[in-house]
């Protein structure tokens, strides 16, 4: 990610309340063109409301934003003609077939009758739903449905795509396919704003991430920067025998640094950024004849990042916050 | 990714890449063209969900049979005389019941997120609503035709022939254009399609019965008669009767059209506004 690239989204101080709920309480975003930018947060954090404002579905109470250079308040039509919305919110029509849905969108966007049919068939083929194209969407499987949702958003390739929780409820295989599609879109030049509550998803796809909690951006950066802001990461070692732990702790303490005993009675970790020293530590333990079940050197996970930033886990929705109205 | 590329039942990444690069954005179509596309969507729904049509035609046909053969003799002296009186009214009832489904369909789109998809597109704002009206009109014509055909099968013969029947049907359909916006507003305000259906029928059902569709209001107690006389559904039924009898009742027809125009003038802007902001 380069900060030099022109910005696809530039938002300042966006706010939106529903009744007494401050769904979005002042959000700033700067998304460079061509990036996949993750907005990461638990349910009810305000992610969806941010997308709805940026896609001009609802007007912000305060703040301003430019999407692809157009003001979302005054130039909504210009925004809508260059973006696509996919996900939980913007659905396809369940009572039409997959093919009819794509033709419908093609016609609405200005393709001729023939061109919209050709385009629909091309997309159905590419997204692996050609065989089901004559089936009503309500009979689609979850994975097929999600692929159709995305296909519906690129009937005409958008410059910016809002991808809202694209893999919620999908099996791992379908999830990987959606990720592949997102990467393909990015390779084709489309900027993607990805809203997700899955840390792994943001880690996998995003060039930059804004962590959002209770309607505010609480941290921002590349996945690497976010992890680094929490700690240096470290060496994790799990022994075959838990009774060897004190001895291993002594060795690692000498070779690497301060040892932390983990909850698992056979596991321990050392804060360490240098792979060479970590390797020395592991081999010292092995030379002492202590059996090692596994070891790893890694950055902290985004789960740890989220916990450190918010004091609660991302997957646990904050009970004080209601699910925001849609 | 070669694994994903070769998967037969998944997305083909290379083809997806190809698909992304092949389209330039076409010029934006005109508003009317977009509305017609939404009309096409409405027709597809009639095709895919014919049960909805069945719902609204079965009830009036049931009433037709029930009233004609059970009460017809007692009310009008003979079943055939009663059929002559009530069929134009049942035509009104049949088509007006169908208008409730405009609100139900709109609410379904809203709750399923389809509306948000449309609202995220660069569209002429009224296009989705006007287009769905087009699809609805097909439903109205089918519902009305079913009732007339069943009536003819039972022995009903309009004095004004096919022309009279078509004119009456056309008038009811135009009236329904106006009335359907009331249910669209309900559809945008209420929480579920079922709520819209219940609220809609709670309004349209008593209004239809407190009209001259089934009985001549002359026999009713004073205050009730007064209400029935001014009920727009009575006036519409009178207008249809007059058209089918070949003696067009100018004032009734004009009042029916005026009521439709007023309903549209009041509820269409509310619908468009709610559609934009919901």
3D structure, described in words:
The complex is a heterodimer of chains A (326) and B (278). Chain A has helices spanning 47-54, 76-80, 98-108, 113-126, 142-153, 172-187, 199-205, 223-230, 245-255, 275-287, 302-310; strands at residues 7-18, 21-32, 36-40, 62-67, 70-71, 83-87, 160-164, 191-196, 208-213, 216-221, 234-239, 259-261, 267-271, 292-298. Chain A has 11 helices and 14 strands. In chain A, helix 3 (98-108) crosses helix 4 (113-126) and helix 9 (245-255) crosses helix 10 (275-287). Chain A is an alpha/beta fold and 326 residues long. In chain A, the strands form 3 sheets. Chain A has a 6-stranded mixed β-sheet, sandwiched between helices. Chain A starts with 6 loop residues before the first strand and ends in a 16-residue tail after the last helix. With 278 residues, chain B is mainly alpha-helical. Chain B has one domain. Chain B has helices spanning 2-6, 13-22, 31-48, 50-76, 79-112, 114-119, 127-153, 161-189, 193-209, 222-230, 232-245, 250-277. Chain B is elongated and about 75 Å long. Mean pLDDT of chain B is 87; it is low at 1-8. At the A-B interface, strand 6, helix 3, helix 4, helix 5 and helix 6 of A face helix 2, helix 3 and helix 6 of B.
Would you identify the CATH H-level superfamily of the domain at 7-82 and 158-228 in chain A? P-loop containing nucleotide triphosphate hydrolases
Morphology of chain A:
elongated
Report the order of strands and helices of chain A.
EEEHEEHEHHHEHEHEEHEHEEHEH
**Largest sheet: number of strands, sense, barrel closure of chain B:** none
CATH topology title of the domain at 7-82 and 158-228 in chain A: Rossmann fold
Radius of gyration of chain A, in Å, reads 24 Å
Structure at a glance:
Chain A has eleven helices and 14 strands. By secondary structure, chain A is an alpha/beta fold. Chain B is elongated.
Write the layout of secondary structure elements.
The complex is a heterodimer of chains A (326) and B (278).
Chain A: E1 7-18, E2 21-32, E3 36-40, H1 47-54, E4 62-67, E5 70-71, H2 76-80, E6 83-87, H3 98-108, H4 113-126, H5 142-153, E7 160-164, H6 172-187, E8 191-196, H7 199-205, E9 208-213, E10 216-221, H8 223-230, E11 234-239, H9 245-255, E12 259-261, E13 267-271, H10 275-287, E14 292-298, H11 302-310
Parallel strand pairs in A: 3-8, 3-9, 6-7, 7-8
Antiparallel strand pairs in A: 1-2, 1-4, 4-5, 9-10, 11-13, 11-14, 12-13
Helix pairs in contact in A: 3-4, 5-6, 8-11, 9-10
Chain B: H1 2-6, H2 13-22, H3 31-48, H4 50-76, H5 79-112, H6 114-119, H7 127-153, H8 161-189, H9 193-209, H10 222-230, H11 232-245, H12 250-277
Helix pairs in contact in B: 3-7, 4-5, 4-7, 5-7, 5-8, 5-9, 5-11, 7-8, 8-11, 8-12, 11-12
């Amino acid at each position: 990610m380069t900060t030099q690239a022109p910005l696809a989204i530039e938002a300042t101080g966006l706010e939106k309340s529903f009744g007494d709920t401050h769904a979005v309480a002042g959000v700033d975003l700067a998304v460079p063109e061509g990036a996949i930018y993750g907005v990461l947060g638990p349910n009810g954090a305000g992610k969806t409301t941010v997308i709805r404002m940026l896609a001009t579905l609802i007007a912000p109470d305060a703040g301003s934003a430019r999407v692809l250079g157009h003001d979302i308040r005054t130039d909504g039509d210009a925004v809508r003609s260059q973006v696509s919305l996919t996900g939980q919110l913007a659905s396809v029509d369940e009572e039409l077939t997959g093919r009819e849905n794509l033709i419908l969108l093609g016609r609405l966007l200005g393709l001729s009758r023939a061109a919209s049919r050709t385009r629909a068939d091309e997309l159905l083929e590419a997204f692996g739903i050609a065989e089901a194209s004559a089936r009503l969407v309500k009979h689609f499987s979850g994975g097929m449905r999600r692929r159709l949702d995305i296909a519906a958003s690129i009937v005409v390739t958008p410059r910016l795509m809002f991808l809202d929780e694209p893999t919620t409820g999908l099996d791992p295989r379908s999830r990987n396919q959606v990720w592949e599609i997102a990467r393909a879109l990015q390779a084709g030049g489309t900027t993607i704003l990805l809203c997700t509550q899955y840390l792994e998803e943001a880690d996998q796809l995003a060039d930059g991430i804004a962590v959002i909690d209770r309607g505010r951006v609480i941290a921002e950066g590349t996945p690497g920067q976010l992890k680094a802001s929490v700690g240096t990461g470290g060496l994790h070692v799990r022994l075959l025998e838990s009774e060897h732990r004190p001895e291993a702790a002594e060795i690692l303490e000498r070779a690497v640094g301060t040892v932390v005993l983990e909850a698992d009675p056979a596991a321990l970790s050392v804060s360490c950024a240098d792979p060479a020293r970590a390797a020395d530590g592991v081999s010292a333990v092995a030379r002492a004849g202590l059996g090692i079940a596994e070891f790893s050197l890694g950055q902290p996970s985004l789960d740890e990042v989220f916990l450190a930033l918010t004091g609660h886990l991302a997957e646990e929705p904050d009970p004080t916050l209601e699910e925001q109205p849609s | 990714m070669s694994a994903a590329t070769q998967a037969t039942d998944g997305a083909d990444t290379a083809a997806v890449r190809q698909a992304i690069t092949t389209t330039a954005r076409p010029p934006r179509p005109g508003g009317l063209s977009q509305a017609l596309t939404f009309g096409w969507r409405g027709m597809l729904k009639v095709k895919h969900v014919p049960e909805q049509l069945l719902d609204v035609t079965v009830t009036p046909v049931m009433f037709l049979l029930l009233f004609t053969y059970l009460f017809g003799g007692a009310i009008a002296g003979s079943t055939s005389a009663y059929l002559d009186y009530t069929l134009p009214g049942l035509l009104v009832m049949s088509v007006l019941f169908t208008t409730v489904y405009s609100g139900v369909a709109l609410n379904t789109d809203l709750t399923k997120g389809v509306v948000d998809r449309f609202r995220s597109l660069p569209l002429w704002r009224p296009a989705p609503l006007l287009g769905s009206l087009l699809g609805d009109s097909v439903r109205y014509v089918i519902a009305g035709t079913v009732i007339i055909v069943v009536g003819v099968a039972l022995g009903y013969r309009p004095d004004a022939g096919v022309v009279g029947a078509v004119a009456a049907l056309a008038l009811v359909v135009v009236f329904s254009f106006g009335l359907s916006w009331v249910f669209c507003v309900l559809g945008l305000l209420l929480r579920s399609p079922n709520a819209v259906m219940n609220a809609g029928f709670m309004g349209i059902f008593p209004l239809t019965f407190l009209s001259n569709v089934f009985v001549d209001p002359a026999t009713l107690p004073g205050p009730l008669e007064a209400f029935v006389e001014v009920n727009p559904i009575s006036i519409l039924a009178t207008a249809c009767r007059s058209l089918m009898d070949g003696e067009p009742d100018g004032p009734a027809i004009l009042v029916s059209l005026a009521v439709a125009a007023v309903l549209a003038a009041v509820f269409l802007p509310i619908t468009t506004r709610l559609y934009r902001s919901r």
